Amino acid sequence: MKRIARQLAINTPKSITKLPRTSQRLLHSQSLPKMTTATFKYIDPASYEGKGKPWGKVDGPGKSFTLKDYQKTVTSLRGHESEFSTENSGFAVYNSPAREKVFTDESAIRNGYYPEVEAMLKERLPGKIKKVVIFDHTIRRRDKNSPRQPVQQVHVDQTPGAAAARVRRHLPAEEAEELLKGRYSIINVWRPIENPATDFPLAVIDWRSTAPSDFIAVDLLYPKRTDNDDDDRGKEVLPDEKTIWSREGYEAKGETFAVAPSEGHRFFYMKDMTPEEVMLLKCFDSAGEGESLGKKGLAVRTPHTAFVDPKTPESAPGRQSIEVRCLVFYE
Whole-angstrom Cα distance, residue 187 to residue 91? Predict the structure, then answer.
């Protein structure tokens, strides 16, 4: 690391010195080979001014704001996985094959894959974990008949308020209030299904290259339910094209962060990520820098997005993936 630091002192471009101090600490990023330049879609802050709080839908493109394209360099993590963790950058990649392969059976996912995810988190995450509560999963397939598609927008799955709401929603009231006093996080466990995620791969932004002002709270709308069942897993349907751009038939049941563009953002991805590999994405950490139990330098969250890699072969099969969202409570 000292050798890399000496090299940076000589070779760091002037534009880097103007970045926030947290970005200047990304010494490792200068040692990684730049893989490709791609288009990334950010919220356009000017598009919702005067329209109230922005909103987006969980099941399609409907939203109250527009996106703006930016060209960014994205760097492969492959061969450098050990340099990144949920503690420093907000994400981590591990080789962790699953027994489940196709993820078409809801019961097999909940009763078979969920325990695998829980065991993996307890083994891989730093710190002593006392409890894991898996509350949601989403399967995305790049197929016109799939109700969930890869999301091409830089975002974070939960805001701090949404994270606390999830604790209260999925645990008994008394236990929830006690657990909220300690450290807890939300981790999204992301895995390709059946074939490598060469098509529409997942990119992440190193948390150390972000600033608190980058994050814009957005209401997440879900279709209104009439069956009094609060569990949306496995019940996704294609949205009604007639109401895609309105709130009709929807209600706010969550809150996410859209991300404003920044020259300082450093994008990474796991090139040709396989179904035997998992990426852990931190959505929130109550002990992250700036939070209630904040520890300086501890990553709070990981912005992420699907993107089009211009080097993807035309023959690559459509991306399929599963993401499992987990509440993690620490001793």
Answer: 9
pLDDT in tens, 274-328: 999 999 999 999 999 999 899 999 999 999 999 999 999 999 999 999 999 999 9
Per-residue pLDDT of 251-287, as tens digits, reads 999 999 999 999 999 999 999 999 999 999 999 999 9
Distances 249 to 230, 244, 271 between C-alpha atoms, Å: 16, 10, 39
Give the alpha-carbon dihedral of 162, 187, 20, 2, to 10 degrees: 160
Q: Which two tokens stand for residue 30?
A: 């200068």
- Integer angstrom CA distances of residue 184 from 8, 131, 271, 291, 319: 36, 9, 30, 11, 31
- Cα gap 137→114, rounded to integer Å: 9
The mean per-residue pLDDT over the stretch 15-21 comes to 42
Q: How far apart are CA 136 and CA 125, in angstroms?
A: 19
* CB-CB contact of 207 with 90 (8 Å): yes
Tokens 């995450």 map to which residue? Answer: 125
Half-sphere exposure (Cβ direction) of 329: Cα atoms closer than 13 Å: 18
* Contacts of range 11-15, beta carbons closer than 8 Å, 24 or more positions apart: 15/263
Q: Mind listing the pLDDT tens digit for each residue in 188-220?
A: 999 999 999 999 999 999 999 999 999 999 999
> For residue 268, what are the contacts with CB-CB under 8 A and spacing of at least 6?
74, 75, 76, 77, 84, 89, 91, 203, 204, 205, 206
